[in-house]
Amino acid sequence: MKENKNILLEHLFAHLEGIVAIPILTLLDQKISNFSITIENKSLNELCSSIGASEGYLNVAIHTLSSLGIIKKIKYKKEVKFEVSNYGRKYLKKSKKLLFYRKINLELNNIVTSNFSDSSIEEYHSKINPILSEIKNEQKSLFLSNDEVQKRIAYHIEGVLLAPLLIYNNYSILNKNLVSSNIEIIKSILSINPNYNDEFIEYFNKRSKSYGVTSSYQPIYSNLDKLIFRNSIENMLYKRDKENNEIHVNRKLNIWGSGGAHKTYFKKIDEMIIDIFNQPIESQPLGVADMGCGDGMFLIHLYNLIKNKTLRGEKIKKHPLHLIGADLNKEALESAKKNLDSREIICDFIISDISNPEKYKKDLNDKFNLDIKDLLHVRSFLDHNRIYKDVPIHPEATKISSSCAYAHKGEKVSSNLIISNLIDHLSNWKKSIEKHGLILLELHGVPLKLASENKMKTPTTAYESTHGFSDQYIVEYEVFIKCAEIANIERVKKYTKLYPDDKLTTVSLNLFK
Prior knowledge:
Blueprint: H1 2-31, H2 35-38, E1 42-43, H3 44-51, H4 55-67, E2 71-76, E3 79-84, H5 86-93, H6 101-113, H7 118-144, H8 148-171, H9 176-190, H10 199-206, H11 212-216, H12 218-221, H13 224-228, H14 251-276, E4 287-291, H15 297-309, H16 311-314, E5 322-327, H17 330-342, E6 348-351, H18 357-368, E7 375-380, E8 406-408, E9 411-413, H19 415-433, E10 438-443, H20 448-453, H21 460-469, H22 477-486, E11 497-499, E12 507-512
Parallel strand pairs: 4-5, 4-7, 5-6, 7-10
Antiparallel strand pairs: 1-3, 2-3, 8-9, 10-12, 11-12
Helix pairs in contact: 1-8, 1-21, 4-21, 6-7, 7-8, 7-9, 8-9, 14-15, 19-22
């Protein structure tokens, strides 16, 4: 059973790969004739010049395909040149099977931007049903080949087709008829796999939140042409709608998807929290501040844990626990307030930005008479989403390198600049966390060579792609720790936990002081 679940987990990771890879491949096929020949022995600058692309976002696209093992980056003197790998040639030979994406691209975008309205799912059904037989025939030929490359392509196609249906069935108020129709489509597609059994549907349905974060960025992937070839960045990443909501990502879906991940890490976080709030009262923090609190469910969990399982909980009437929910997104704060109010948990809320700890410190003092140093700080999957600013290259940054791809408003950003920026960011938080600490749950990239060699063993391809295209800056775990050390932030090593392991780390949990 364990072996089967490992296979299904790889299957799920391949689904997430498909959501980001297929839009890239179909766009490049459309925009660049003889893509595999055009890219050969070209540097990024040469390729951008020849096809008229944005250097920053084309670099992210190429990095996505490199993470899949389709493209190789070869160091040539002081430049990096590209070539299609043997694995990539096998993949690209079957790329025509991906062209169905052009027929459903708009519908996929509409599903996410309408927040999974019934009408958007109905439109998707009407678009997909006429082409389903053809897609299933293509899938059958991919599986019958008994070739690992073709099987992975089949999984990629499944990911694109099934993600919106799996999410709809678990995301919001449901139309039973649509749920039933979704299940029929899901089963008909999955059952093409010769190894199919009923456990497939149960497995993917239970993990529908795993698709949430990647799918929340569908507006970017449906508009890649604008980012890569027209560089209309202001119309996507930094523009807001009439209600001041982001248009490049469905933030509600993103929070829903990432919120599901917390449960995976609760056990280790609980250990830290219990130790901290079992100290003598005079040594304990006044409370907990969650920067990037999202829907508030993490704060609810922490409050109940402290109340029911610690010394502080036994004395909570005499020593109340101050809770702070901070977020830059007003919609998230409204959701968090509703969730904590419904459970009669007292919490103060504040609009704040992780990139500006000094203002956060001032606002906590002015609005709630709290010293930022007197709080235990918690953050989950947020530091990579700091607002980028240029800083001088740190002398130590030149000794560290990341293999991830970075962009800011269409411009390519070097590894040295991102590392310097991260050192500066962590240094700015040093004084605020040194008394009681920062529990930090963070997302990481995987070194490119490792990612391409460990096919379907990690979700890093999807994570690095979505974050690269949305001007976010994840780095490998080893790089993150080196930056923390340079910033003079101490890691309490006994609490460190890496997921899935210390080789292919995509998520880390640490207590820093």
